[in-house]
Each structure stands twice: as structure tokens, then as C-alpha cells.
Amino acid sequence: MNSGDSDMQCKSSPRYLVIQLARFGDLLQTKRLLRSLQGDGEVHLLVDDSLKSLARIVYPGVEVHGIAAHGTHGPDILARVHEELAGIMELDFHRVYNLNFSGLSFALAGMFPCSTVRGYRSHRGQRLIDSWPGQIMRWTRARALTGLNLVDVWGLYAEQPALPERVNPDAVPRGGGIGVVMAGQNARRSLPAAMLAPLVQAAAGRVGRGPIHLLGSGSERRAARELAALLPASLRGEVRDLVGRTGWQELHDTVGGLDLLVSPDTGTMHLAAHLGVPVLAFFLSSAWCHETGPYGRGHLVLQATRECAPCLETAPCPHDVACRSVFGDPSVLRHVSGHTSRELAPGCAVMTSGFDELGLTFTVVAGTDPEFGRRRAFRAMAAAYAGLPMRSDAEFLPEETWMQERDWMLPQTLRGRAHD
Q: Are strands 239-241 and 212-215 parallel, antiparallel or unpaired?
């Protein structure tokens, strides 16, 4: 091949931009989309400045750009953003995937031709939402009955989505002991030290070796000290308190060597799944494993299953976070330690991760999942809508309102409008 042929091939390769301005965990959950696009062309990723270095660690081969999306205010912000976007605006993109519903994201979308943008777009000042994210918004009104993992929600934006089982490696112990994430961003979805300590002790019995690494931000140092003090003397000497002491590279390297990560729904949990490290996660309050559970085979989730689950994160809890108490039940602790012969207390289900044709699934291995049948029917419908063949004998339920007239009357496709 001569240089002219090579130049022609480079010019014909599509160039993609993914705009992901959300948090640490969301960055990791963009992986299926990025992997799908990398198989077809050159991929660029726009993130908040605080996540640039992490994005470059976890996504080699992706061109990472940063913008002051969070925590920056004042009259200089417009000039700063304009300067940061200068390099991006010099490039021609075949597709721009705008993944976030926010004023800034809509404004950024308006900088590109409307026909190239997927997800959330702006045209002559009007905000437009593609049919796929619009459907997701509607389906989340019945979260207990539906549930698509966010990795798959974003991954299915791609015209040729990567197979779900090829996104993250299967989880296997790495020999470095246990990691414990002290808390998530929302306090209601985390456990206090007095309740977390017995879970850590049970997890240590399950793994049977190695140190216990405490992970988290600097604001959780007091909770880390409380947790260490509550552990039995035989484990206290194994504690390695790394809370507030790890940068992105140190966190990546530490998590990548663990046998098991114990965590609520956090970005570190998604980092472990990205690296193929087994996760034992506890999901309560508004956290729902069918939406944001660890992606890949080999993970376990303790899911709170009260009738009110999953609740709305922004609404006050009228039950004083009663779903939290089940995680201290002896039957739950026995299951965490690996002794699974006895029944599980009501209000909790142990779920194991796996895949179907649509993406990640969680199947109950202890406890009950009364909505399994309806969720299975929903996934069959969602797969059909996404154009994915699914081997399923689940039937559509006639009383469901998952689809509306406008979904088939108006000219549109899964990933955009039919006329684009």
C-alpha cells in the first residue's frame, strides 16, 4: 500500500465524539459504547477536567479532552470553555454522542450539525431527545419492573454495539486481599461503620487471605478509623488505611490487585468491574442493581427488596431508611461469608451477574425476586425495540404501557430520526 492509499484509508475512517460530563462511575459505564466505536473508527471523549487523567488510564487508544464542566463559576468560565473546546471544533465528526441531560450538554450539542448528534441535541434553540433516551426516561417510571444496565443504555447508542460479554473481563481473584469502599456519594445508599464492620469480617472469611484495604475520599477518614476499631483484633492488623491517600493511578493499581471489593454503588465498584476484580456490592435505597450493578460475570449484589425499593434519591425517606437494617441480619452475614445453605432474611436478595442478548442481567440465588417474570418480558420487548434478537419465551403483557402510539407512528429510529 503506498502513502496515497494510506492517506485515503485514514480519511475514510469515521471519527466519533462521546460527550460524557457526569461522574466517576458514569465514565466507567460508558465503556460498551466506546468499545463499540473503537472497532469502527477514531474515538474522542470529552469529560470533566477532574476525570481526564482517569479516562486516559482506563481507555487507552481513546483521545481524551477535558472541559470545566463542574465546580467552576464566575465571568471567566465562558472564555475558559471556549479555549478548551478549540481543538475539538477543528475536527469533523461522523457522529457526536451526547449522553447527559443537562444545560451544558445541550449547549455543547448545538455546536455541531444537528444531524450528527445522537442522544440529546439542540436545533435552533429547541431541545430534542432521540427516541432511545426518551424511551429510557419513560421506562424508569416503573424501575422495579424494568431495569436496563446503564452500560447497555449507552452502549446501544452505537449502530453496531459490542457484545456485552466482551466489554469487561470475567471477574477472578487477584491475590491482593479485600478492598472496602467506605461510602458512596449518597449517604442513604451507604452503611454506617457499625453495620459495615460485620460485613467486612464476613467477606474476610469468604476470601480467607490478605490485607484489608480501606478506600475512599478524605472526608471518610473518620469513618475508616471507626471501622478499623470495630473489627476483631485478628483483622485489625490487616487493615491498610488508604482513605484519602490515592490518586487515580494508585486507586487503579490497588483495585486491580484485589481478591474482592466490598462496596456500595460507587465509581470504585465500576472500576473493579472494568478490571475484572470480583465485587460484593450492597444496594439499598435508590440503588438498583438492574440499572447500575457491576458489569461482567462473577459479581454478587446484596439487593434490598422492600416494597418501596428502589426509591427516589431526591425524595425524603418516610421509613427512616428501614431497608438498611437487613444487611446486619445473621442470615445475610452467613451468605457473605460463603455459607449459603440456610434461608435468607426477608427484605434482601443475593443476585449474581450474567448476560442475555440485550446486556447485563442479575439473577437471584438467595431470597426472592417476585418481579422476575415481568422484568424478563420487559427485556424481550426492549431487545426487540433495539433490534437485537433474543432467545426468550417471555410474552408481552397486555396491561403494560411500555410502548405508545407515537413510538410507531412518527418517523424515527432507535438511534435518531429517520430523516437524518
A: parallel
8 Å CB contact between 213 and 254: yes
SS3 366: strand
Digitized pLDDT (tens) for each residue of the chain, 420 residues in all: 454 444 444 457 899 999 999 999 999 999 999 999 999 999 999 999 999 999 999 999 999 999 988 876 656 666 777 778 888 989 999 999 999 999 889 999 999 999 999 999 998 889 999 989 998 998 888 898 888 999 999 999 999 999 999 999 999 999 999 999 999 878 888 999 999 999 999 999 999 988 999 999 999 999 999 999 999 999 999 999 999 999 999 999 999 999 999 999 999 999 999 999 999 999 999 999 999 999 999 999 999 999 889 988 888 898 888 899 999 999 999 999 998 877 899 999 999 999 999 999 999 999 999 899 889 989 988 888 888 888 766 666 655 667 776 666 665 555 544 434
Nearest to 133 by CA among 115, 120, 146, 151: 120
Q: Which residues, in sequence order, are CB contacts of 368 under 8 Å at separation 6+? A: 305, 349
Residues whose CB is less than 8 angstroms from the CB of residue 120 and which lie 6 or more positions away in sequence, other chains included: 98, 99, 100, 101, 105, 106, 109, 127, 128, 129, 130, 133
* Residue 38 burial (10 A CB sphere; 0-12, 13-18, 19+): middle
The cell 461482567 sits on which residue?
A: 296
Instruction: Determine if the pTM surpasses 0.85.
Output: yes
What grid cell was written down for 230? 470495630
Enumerate domains of the chain plus CATH numbers: 3-129 (3.40.50.2000), 178-374 (3.40.50.2000)
